[in-house]
Specification:
The chain is α+β, with helices and mostly antiparallel strands. It has one domain (2-77): Mth169, Chain: A. The protein is 30% helix and 32% strand. The protein has two helices and three strands, in the order E-H-E-H-E. The protein has helices at 17-28, 53-64, and strands spanning 2-10, 41-47, 70-79. Strands 2-1-3 form a three-stranded antiparallel β-sheet, covered by helices on one side. The longest helix has 12 residues, at 17-28. InterPro entries: PurS, PurS-like_sf. It comes from Corynebacterium urealyticum (strain ATCC 43042 / DSM 7109). It is an enzyme of class 6 (ligase).
């Protein structure tokens, strides 16, 4: 069994209001030097050998990410025993 991670992030040209709210909140914490924050999503899937790379791409593109406004990355993290 493998653990697959799918990272989903807003595309660079898409406004990220949650990220901007975090940047503004840093001032209240008296933390400076952070120029930008982008908030995304991380999905962890435990899959067996029957799930192909093409299947993982399909899951990410059609179910986990809204590809109009988000980019995604599929990463095979580790093999579970």
């Amino acid at each position: 069994m493998a653990r697959v991670v799918v990272n989903v992030m807003p595309k660079k040209e898409i406004l990220d209001p949650q990220g901007q709210a975090i940047v503004r909140a840093l001032g209240r914490l008296e933390i400076s030097g952070v120029q930008d924050v982008r908030q995304g999503k991380r999905f962890e899937l435990e899959v067996d050998d029957q799930v192909s790379e093409a299947d993982l791409e399909k899951i990410a593109a059609e179910l986990l990410a809204n590809t109009v406004i988000e980019d995604y990355e599929v990463v095979t993290a580790e093999v579970q025993q």
